[in-house]
# Entry
Amino acid sequence: MKLLVTGATGYIGSHAVLELLEAGHEVVGVDNLSNSSRESLRRVEALTGKAVPFVQADIRDRGAMAAVLNAGGPADGARAFDAVMHFAGLKAVGESTEQPVAYYENNVAGTLSLLDAMESAGVRRMIFSSSATVYGDPQSVPIAETTPVGSPSNPYGFSKLMIEQILRDLAAADPRWSVALLRYFNPVGAHSSGRIGEDPQGVPNNLVPYISQVAVGRREALSIFGDDYPTPDGTGVRDYIHVVDLARGHVRALEFLVNAGVGQTDPSGQSPRAAGDQAPANCPVWNLGTGRGYSVREAVAAFEKASGRTIPVRVAPRRPGDIAACYADPTLAREQLGWEAEHGLEAMMRDAWRWQRQNPQGYEG
Ligand code: NAD
Ligand code: WQD
# Structure
């Protein structure tokens, strides 16, 4: 199949492009390079021996997106692309509380512009990067897809919730569309080659990149944000998932939408609705997580073991908006997609460390 991947040079996008190519698909990448480097896709090309045409464009530029989506279509007027994998967006939770408009504009308005361009090109299949953040502070863990979405604690989370709603409404209104909403838990790690990985700009917001930068000597110590949570060791518990497993989940979701014929117009012209559920069947939702939660202290210990380095830590106050524990019930993805995470915490930390050690300053180093 031929895919347009937005946010293709980013952390998860670049790993997904690699897995798509390995699975035999063709990819065109789009990114405005606001939070990533062109170098990531060059490395994906080197790793796979396959070309990835790249267009530097902003998803908010509807004309540019329509041009990309319509380009190179076969002369018989068939569609140029089979689907869009949509990773592009801003993702820094703290920044989103300071610049909410920028977040709604990039994420929500950007997605609307992309959808409009897709419609104009007749490309009506999308795999969307959502987030476990849409569950807010859940009443209980593990979190299944049937858990009602909650109230995210920041504009970033709300932007994901809004996009999910837009996509659900679109799928309900038009049976030709098929959309997969993938709710990621905590993606970490890197490709086992150590050639591509997470390269945050400035001070890392997330735990594993921060630990990695401490290990490589770029930062002094990790601040543990709170050790008085109602968890076994008092630190926050999360479902860390290896980015390669996550990327493979996208390939499975794509195959599901295509093979299950999701989104093909049925004779009634109605959007199929899943029984006993408000979600249209042409807009499935899957959690992508491991189902296992680890605390901050367990993550630090695993990283120390994988790297052979000591990570100095100090306990700091809780970070506003953080919750005690969050981990997935990944049963639905296993049953419907035949997908489950294969890498454990040790592999996640080993690969995160290999990437950081080989690229101490990231792609620009
Ligand atoms: P990333 O920042 O590495 O990748 C996002 C990419 O989108 C970047 O390359 C950036 O330059 C690009 N981009 C941003 N705005 C754009 C725009 N208007 N037009 C074109 N390109 C634009 O982040 P990531 O970790 O790879 O995340 C990918 C997606 O997954 C995002 O939508 C994010 O919200 C979502 N997500 C990430 C996590 C996580 O913890 N990393 C968790 C859940 C969901
Ligand atoms: C993990 C744990 C922190 C940094 C965020 C977003 C979420 C999703 C994934 C996009 C928590 C603790 C962290 C540090 C620490 N992103 N921590 N010291 O907060 O679970 O999720 O990224 O959709 O929306 O909110 O991930 O990696 O920031 O934190 O102690 O320097 O590590 O308190 O318990 P989080 P994280």
The chain has a mean pLDDT of 95. The two ends are 35 Å apart (CA to CA). The longest strand covers residues 125-131. The chain has eleven helices and 14 strands.
